[in-house]
Design goal:
The chain is an all-alpha fold. It contains 16 helices and no strands. Helix 8 packs antiparallel against helix 10, helix 11 packs across helix 12 and helix 13 packs antiparallel against helix 14.
Length: about 350
């Protein structure tokens, strides 16, 4: 029985190794959200480990992924800790004599020692800084006692920060078009148009350029920002006393409720579409923005990175609204059919 299980896991590992990750847009988003130091991100064994984790999550949950060993040959095995503790009293005297030389050695090689809480301006640190800034500004924009001019400025800066963060993420993952002509730009655009970063970029630009401040629109970018910030804090500051005292609980909650945040964001995005339609009957109407936003909602419904949550929201709306339409407003069936034909096209 154990042999069959081992053979099955061997076949699963071969399948995971042969999977085409580069053509799966979910892998690019998954890898973008993995926050590890740059020197580890360049190691092939680390990349292979996270590919197996991705394969286990999205393709085959039956694949068993062993924990990744972060230590190198310079770290002693953990099994020898108990045996070496018995001889610690005997080695205390020699250690005390050599403490001075070891201190001088460590002092001379201090810059090469890695501090787990050291801030380095790599891609993850930049994203963390920008998204922490976005979350703080979004919070400032919705507080009721903040003056209106400061609130509106924080509102627009939060969307601008999200646009910069998304654009930087697209540049880090996909680079620039190979050539500055229409054909190369089309190829590059086709590779990024269905990604979550591109959708967030268009979403943010749309509200930065709008003259109307819809505070409701801050919900999706706030959920994105707090999720990225929590992941970075948990992976880079887990040994910090300040983090353990004040931020560990909220970070764990955010990481364990990413599905809830995704559902909340999708509901807010769909609700915002209906809010823009209602605004067409007021003096704040913006026909072009409403049309463009519904095109973006259509893309969110079809893109693999966001379709799961959005299809769930629309299915729930259909279950709630369709019975009432069939009973009280059957004349709406024809325009709804026309709209659905455009939606699924």
């Amino acid at each position: 029985m154990g042999g069959e299980e081992g053979e099955s896991q061997k076949l699963k590992k071969i399948a995971a190794l042969a999977y085409d990750y580069e053509n799966d847009p979910r892998w690019a988003e998954y890898w973008a959200n993995v926050l590890i130091p740059p020197h580890m991100a360049s190691r092939s064994d680390v990349v292979d480990h996270f590919k197996r984790k991705f394969y286990q999550r999205y393709i085959d949950p039956g694949l068993v992924v062993e924990p990744m060993s972060l230590g190198g040959s310079s770290q002693p095995p953990r099994q020898t800790a108990s045996s070496s503790s018995s001889s610690s009293t005997a080695s205390d005297q020699p250690r005390s004599h050599s403490s001075g030389s070891s201190a001088r050695t460590s002092g001379s090689s201090g810059p090469s020692g890695s501090n787990p809480t050291t801030m380095r301006w790599d891609r993850q640190t930049i994203q963390f800084s920008v998204n922490a800034w976005v979350f703080a500004l979004a919070l400032l924009a919705v507080l009721p006692f903040v003056p209106m001019n400061i609130s509106n400025r924080a509102y627009r800066l939060s969307f601008l920060g999200t646009a910069c963060s998304s654009l930087y993420s697209l540049y880090s993952l996909y680079g620039l078009p190979r050539a500055w002509n229409l054909q190369a730009a089309q190829v590059w655009l086709q590779s990024v148009v269905a990604t979550k970063d591109f959708i967030n970029f268009i979403y943010s630009i749309m509200f930065v350029m709008s003259h109307v401040c819809l505070k409701f629109a801050l919900i999706p970018i706030s959920c994105r920002a707090v999720e990225l910030v929590a992941k970075f804090l948990r992976r880079n500051f887990n040994r910090s006393t300040l983090y353990r005292k004040y931020l560990e609980g909220p970070s764990i909650w955010v990481e364990s409720n990413t599905t809830t945040l995704g559902i909340l964001s999708s509901n807010a995005e769909v609700g915002l579409g209906f809010l823009l339609i209602i605004s067409l009957f007021s003096w704040q109407r913006n026909i072009m923005q409403t049309f463009m936003y519904w095109q973006l909602l259509k893309l969110m419904y079809q893109a693999p990175a966001t379709s799961g949550y959005h299809r769930s929201v629309w299915a729930e709306i259909g279950r709630s609204v369709n019975p009432s339409i069939h009973r009280y407003a059957p004349f709406l069936k024809t325009p709804i059919t026309f709209i659905q034909r455009w939606w699924f096209r």
